[in-house]
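Re: [ENG-882] Designed sequences occasionally contain unexpected residues at chain ends

Forwarding the minimal case from QA. Structure tokens:
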């Protein structure tokens, strides 16, 4: 079938019902509006499979503009149709089901597989190139064929989304995209959409385990679901192996912002109730901002979770040779760089190990220091605004090990590598949320003690409970060096002793190759505008392992340079972590004496020593 405009294997323009049963073989070519079934499916049309059958389209569809495997453009309903035809647009708008899914259009229970979708000088989507109205809907679709925009934007389901993708309630059963390569040349790319526009929604979609979606792109904003998110992403799931990032990312070193769900969320964008279970271990030196949920957050991340491995493995010298090796680079369990709001999020299990970098000096200003090191944290690498009611290390690994966050250099913290905003109600969930209706969570109980009408009685009750009591004994961090020895800190048994190990990790074999930076249980560096309140560490170990003398370590913050004056910088913060600073001393090639520095804190008796409104359980200085 050939025509100038509106060419289809069954109808040029459909204003009625087209029921497919079995296989439809089409070869359709037009200047504009070409479809394997209809050139245009109007607002009065419907294309669907007959009852108890699956209609399939085979062959090829080619147009300058508006090429779709089923319809060039869709303004009504296309449902239960599988497309195997190749689709090609020489100028713009190529889609596996429709070139454009327009206002009033619904595409449901459809798939595109086997043959490629290709746009020479425009945009390409696995289902529809352009999903261009907030009331248009794509749901329960599957794509498993190559999608290419040779000189434009490409996405696994749609290149640019201005409508709704995903069913209304409940996670969809099947992976929306799998087993394909998405190729584009724009600045953003994603497995569902390159761009999720303002007022657009991606909801309840899944990228299944081992979906193995690959990107071939120079893009610098990359997301498992959407590269750039200006709208809403909610109720989604990205499982391990969903993305294959080992090759195909053509951007240079330290240029890519990547997140397991979205690359970047803009000011009005939101990601909510989305779970990411994804190892991010490939091409680590390309990332300037790497986050389990979002690489960079300028909007809102709420009630999201991350579980997985980020970074590489340590060699026999304790070095991870990749990741966060450029100044200013960020790595975080929820977001790499947070410029807005993270609330109600949770990092269940994380194994985060990177190299990092530190060029900080004692003469630099706080802002200069922020620009001179990498930022590595459990919730956010760098927090410039707000982290609220968010928790780290709430579950163990399958093997029973606790979480681990380490770098050789830079700012490292259990919640944020650096904090230049506000951290509140965050850290250890066990210390902040009571799972027992008969007792308050530790932080709430500390507030009660401190707020007692009889201040001395409150302090005495607190001291008695936290030195000899049993109510909160399970929150006490374990110094695994004291219990098992230096060689077991990073082992399975060492990690199993705590919920979280946070460490600056120097050389195992040299007293001169030392870690360098600021290390803290909640934040490595609390900068000029940083405040922390109603937050706590838990059964954690904060370990400065063979670091330089200029490096700092603390149960709450490693280095505090906040100059906030209108409120308390550290207000009702509780440290339950064991804290140790250690430097290796060698005689020739043999380890002569593993020497603890003067300012070491071991996890002997659990105590809570008030210092203003800052509290430090589990701290006994050893000299």
């Amino acid at each position: 079938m050939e025509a100038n405009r509106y060419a289809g294997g069954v109808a040029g323009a459909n204003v009625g019902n087209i029921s497919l049963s079995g296989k439809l073989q089409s070869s359709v070519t037009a200047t504009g509006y070409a479809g394997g079934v209809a050139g245009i499916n109007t607002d009065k049309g419907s294309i669907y499979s007959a009852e108890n059958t699956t209609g399939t389209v085979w062959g090829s569809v080619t147009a300058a503009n508006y090429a779709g495997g089923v319809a060039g453009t869709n303004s009504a309903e296309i449902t239960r149709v599988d497309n195997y035809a190749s689709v090609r647009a020489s100028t713009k708008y190529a889609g596996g089901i429709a070139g454009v899914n327009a206002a009033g259009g619904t595409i449901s229970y459809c798939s595109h597989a086997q043959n490629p979708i290709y746009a020479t000088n425009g945009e390409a989507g696995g289902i529809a190139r352009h999903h261009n109205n907030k009331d248009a809907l794509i749901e329960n679709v599957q794509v498993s064929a190559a999608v290419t925009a040779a000189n434009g934007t490409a996405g696994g389901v749609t290149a640019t989304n201005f409508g709704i993708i995903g069913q209304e309630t409940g996670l969809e059963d099947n992976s929306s995209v799998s087993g394909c390569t998405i190729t584009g040349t724009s600045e953003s790319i994603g497995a569902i959409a390159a761009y999720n526009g303002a007022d657009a929604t991606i909801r309840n979609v899944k990228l299944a385990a081992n979906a193995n979606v690959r990107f071939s792109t120079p893009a610098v904003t990359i997301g498992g679901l959407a590269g750039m998110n200006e709208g809403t992403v909610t109720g989604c799931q990205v499982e391990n192996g969903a993305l294959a990032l080992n090759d195909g990312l053509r951007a240079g070193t330290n240029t890519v912002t990547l997140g397991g769900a979205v690359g970047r969320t803009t000011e009005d964008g939101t990601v909510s109730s989305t779970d990411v279970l994804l190892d991010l271990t490939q091409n680590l030196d390309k990332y300037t901002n790497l986050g389990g949920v979002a690489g960079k957050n300028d909007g809102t991340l709420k009630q999201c979770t991350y579980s997985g491995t980020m970074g590489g493995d340590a060699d026999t010298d304790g070095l991870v040779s990749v990741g966060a090796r450029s100044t200013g680079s960020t790595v975080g369990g929820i977001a790499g760089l947070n410029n807005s709001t993270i609330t109600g999020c949770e990092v269940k299990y994380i194994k985060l190990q990177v190299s990092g970098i530190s060029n900080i000096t004692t003469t630099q200003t706080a802002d200069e220091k922020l620009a001179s090191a990498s930022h590595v944290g459990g919730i956010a690498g760098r927090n410039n605004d707000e982290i609220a009611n968010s928790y780290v290390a709430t579950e163990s690994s399958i093997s029973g090990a606790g979480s681990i966050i380490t770098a050789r250099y830079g700012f490292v913290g259990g919640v944020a590598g650096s904090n230049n905003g506000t951290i509140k109600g965050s850290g250890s969930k066990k210390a902040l949320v009571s799972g027992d209706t008969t007792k308050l969570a530790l932080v709430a109980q500390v507030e009660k003690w401190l707020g007692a009408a009889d201040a001395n009685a409150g302090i005495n009750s607190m001291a008695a409970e936290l030195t000899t009591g049993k109510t909160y004994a399970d929150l006490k961090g374990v110094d695994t060096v004291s219990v098992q020895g230096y060689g077991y800190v990073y082992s399975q048994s060492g990690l199993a002793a705590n919920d979280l190990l946070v460490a600056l990790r120097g050389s195992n074999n040299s007293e001169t190759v030392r870690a360098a930076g600021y290390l803290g249980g909640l934040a490595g560096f609390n900068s000029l505008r940083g405040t922390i309140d109603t937050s706590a560490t838990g059964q954690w170990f904060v370990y400065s392992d063979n670091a330089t003398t200029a490096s700092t370590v603390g149960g709450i913050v490693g280095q505090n340079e906040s100059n906030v004056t209108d409120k308390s910088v550290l207000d009702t913060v509780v440290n339950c972590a064991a804290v140790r600073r250690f430097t290796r001393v060698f005689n020739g090639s043999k380890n002569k004496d593993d020497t603890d520095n003067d300012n070491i804190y071991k996890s002997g008796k659990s105590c809570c020593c008030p210092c203003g409104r800052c509290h430090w359980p589990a701290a006994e200085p050893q000299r």
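QA comment: On inspection the terminal residues look reasonable. Confidence is low (pLDDT under 50) at residues 590-623. Proposing we downgrade this to a documentation issue.
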